[in-house]
Amino acid sequence: xxxxxxxxxxxxxxxxxxxxxxxxxxxxxxxxxxxxxxxxxxxxxxxxxxxxxxxxxxxxxxxxxxxxxxxxxxxxxxxxxxxxxxxxxxxxxxxxxxxxxxxxxxxxxxxxxxxxxxxxxxxxxxxxxxxxxxxxxxxxxxxxxxxxxxxxxxxxxxxxxxxxxxxxxxxxxxxxxxxxxxxxxxxxxxxxxxxxxxxxxxxxxxxxxxxxxxxxxxxxxxxxxxxxxxxxxxxxxxxxxxxxxxxxxxxxxxxxxxxxxxxxxxxxxxxxxxxxxxxxxxxxxxxxxxxxxxxxxxxxxxxxxxxxxxxxxxxxxxxxxxxxxxxxxxxxxxxxxxxxxxxxxxxxxxxxxxxxxxxxxx
Length: 362
Prior knowledge:
Layout: H1 3-32, E1 50-53, E2 64-74, E3 85-93, E4 100-111, H2 113-124, E5 130-141, E6 152-157, H3 161-174, H4 179-196, H5 199-214, H6 218-226, E7 235-241, E8 245-252, H7 257-274, E9 289-296, E10 299-300, E11 310-318, E12 336-344
Parallel strand pairs: 1-5
Antiparallel strand pairs: 2-5, 2-9, 3-4, 6-7, 8-12, 9-10, 11-12
């Protein structure tokens, strides 16, 4: 090939490359002129919720991701405690006052101990908040550093012998005994113990009795008199359940105009649904609730933990994820970070675990 032919061929290649770059620039300009909010993740015809996802990549059977369904919060009212009543019925007699007319008239309601207990049982089984009307179905990549933490509350508690004696007296009063008699019995037992005890024990008992007479702290007087304290019988007792919280950090680096608009819709969806609404101006409606689920393809993840319905309690957006402000031509930041903190609406109980679960459970 001659030198002239080589120069001509190079010119043709350079011209083709220039035309290709011009087409890309024109396409980018056209994308920047589009109106946001209608390109991706729109509500499909007949679909119950808007489908939002990042990235805009295909999901197959081997893809792991986090599914977040945003649903309206609907309180599950429990009338179990309010219905803990029985009907009061009155029976009417005839003119002679002998035969009772077989007819009852409801005059009102009174509390029933049996129904109160039944109501408490029903109330404890109510899951606070139910989900209806899914408004958004958001798919996000599983973030780094995912954890779950389960905890319960235990607290120290003590019961010294004097308190135990008082509790025993109260229990006897509850069984129908005379309160003054029981206090007298407890006092006589303490005096008998003082007569049979050694010198130090005798001082301790007398100090304890004296403390009740002058309104002082019995343990303090015993310590002053003998240099000892009552055995506190200290132990750790279960005191309550806790609600779990989860925090996630998501990185957004849109690679196209469509992906940038999708990120905008995802951020907007979380912002809009996490806050309450005040349509009437008198009452404030609760925000939406969120059902999270780790997924693998179309099925629940076979290992990672499950979630109960959650509230979104905190949301932070960093529009300069790389530490430097930079945007595309349409204003979309090149790197963003979104941190979400969820808290479950209900505590986890042992009954929530079953042998049929394939993952680690809650």
